[in-house]
Amino acid sequence: MAEVMPKKFELEPGGLIICSAHEEDAEKIIAFMKQSVQETDFLAREPNEFGITVEDEKKFINNTIESERDIFLKAEVNGKIVGTLGFSTKKLNRYKHKGEFGMVVSKDYWGQGIGTKLLEILLDWADENGLVKISLRVDATNKQAIKLYEKFGFRKEGLLEKNREMKDGEYRDELVMALIIKYNL
Asked: Based on CB atoms within 10 Å of each CB, which residue in 10, 68, 70, 180 is the most buried?
């Protein structure tokens, strides 16, 4: 089982708790995601594309907890979900040393250290679990997120040109970024 026990932090917005999500969080996570997809166009989905049911979310959360190589974290401030981070690996032997994550922080909480804490917990967990490489994709115009990833040592590995088509017909590039955790294998 891959479960992260609650970790508490004092940040500007108040008491922050980060831990693995559980099925009883499903409704709050769905509400958080529905709000988040309306706040920014940096996410993969548009607002009308988020149609996950509570039952599907519960299954996803339970599958993640039962997995030894995947995690799904929630960040709460004063009982309100303000961020999530999902990390998944492939089950194929040639790819089990690495995984990819996606992170969302509520716009009202940008710049307050929540993304930093989510990443710290992910990287500690990944190191403890023998992972070698952590990767992500990020909208190339999301300078704040890119700066955060670079602060942790993530490097740009590639550019996916015109990888996102926006509602207005604009195309955006995506960066592939990665961090090698263990060099001496």
From this structure: 70
| Within a domain: 25 | yes
What is the C-alpha to C-alpha distance for residues 176 and 93, in angstroms, rounded to an integer? 22
pTM of the model: 0.94
Evaluate whether 122 touches 84 at the Cβ level (below 8 Å).
no
Amino acid at 73: L
Could you tell me which residues are beta bridge partners of residue 42?
A: none
The CATH number linked to 99 is 3.40.630.30
**H helix or E strand, kind and range, residue 65:** helix 54-66
Query: pLDDT (tens digit, 0 to 9) for every residue of the chain, 185 residues total?
Result: 678 999 999 987 679 999 999 999 999 999 999 999 999 999 999 888 888 999 999 999 999 999 989 999 999 998 999 999 999 999 899 999 999 999 999 999 999 999 999 999 999 999 999 999 999 999 999 999 999 999 999 999 999 999 999 999 999 999 999 999 976 55
How many domains, in total, are found in the chain? 1
Phi, psi of 22 (to 5 degrees): -130, 165
DSSP-derived pairing of the beta strands 98-105 and 133-139: parallel
The beta strands (E) that lie in the chain are given as 7-11, 14-20, 71-77, 80-89, 98-105, 133-139, 155-165, 171-180
